[in-house]
Amino acid sequence: MQVSVTFRKIEASDTLRNYAEDKLYRVKKYVEDPIDAHVVLSVEKFRHIAEVSVDANGLRLNGVEETEDMYSAIDMAVDKIESQIKRYRQKLKKRKSDASSKDLVMRRDVLAGENLEESEEPQVIKTKQVYVKPMDPDEALMQMNLVNSEFLVFTNAKTQTINVIYRRKDGNYGLIEPVT
């Protein structure tokens, strides 16, 4: 954790610097490294101002507090940062739980749909039109591997008939040719 402390209109003291650094180490238990923290301590008339900015893995948090005591201003600013981190983590947990519950609902729908399909007759649910290019079976094999498909429909350049080349489960290839 990188902590930088800046003093404005106040004499720099190691006790305040160490106090701010110690308080910011509480944040470390909520966020993974790398963490950069910047603390600006300033005094304006009788107000002590503590500005805390934390950058942690793309998350930027800011907290500003004004009190009559610098130590309490630091405490309150770090408390603000801590509550912001807690709210952010709760949002992440909620998003994850929402996503997993949606996934679970989708799985239930799919399973319910499978049971319905078993009782009914199979039907065509998708139609796809393809341009059947004339080529020889070797070229069709290369084309099928190029597009990373399981099968390819093509016109055999020698016989001028529609053929299908497909990948078999044993790793070899099969060719379907119509008989005329």
Task: Give an account of the 3D structure.
The structure is a single chain. With 180 residues, the protein is α/β, with parallel strands linked by helices. The protein has 2 domains: 2-92, Ribosome hibernation promotion factor-like (Double Stranded RNA Binding Domain); 134-176, Sigma 54 modulation/S30EA ribosomal protein, C-terminal domain (SHC Adaptor Protein, 2-Layer Sandwich), CATH 3.30.505. The protein contains 3 helices and 8 strands; from the N terminus they run E-H-E-E-E-H-E-H-E-E-E. The chain has helices at 14-24, 70-119, 137-146, and strands at residues 2-8, 35-44, 47-56, 59-67, 134-135, 151-156, 162-167, 173-176. A 4-stranded mixed beta sheet has the order 1-2-3-4, covered by helices on one side. A 4-stranded mixed beta sheet has the order 5-6-7-8. Helix 1 runs parallel beside helix 2. It is rod-shaped and about 100 Å long. Residues 106-117 have low confidence and may be disordered.
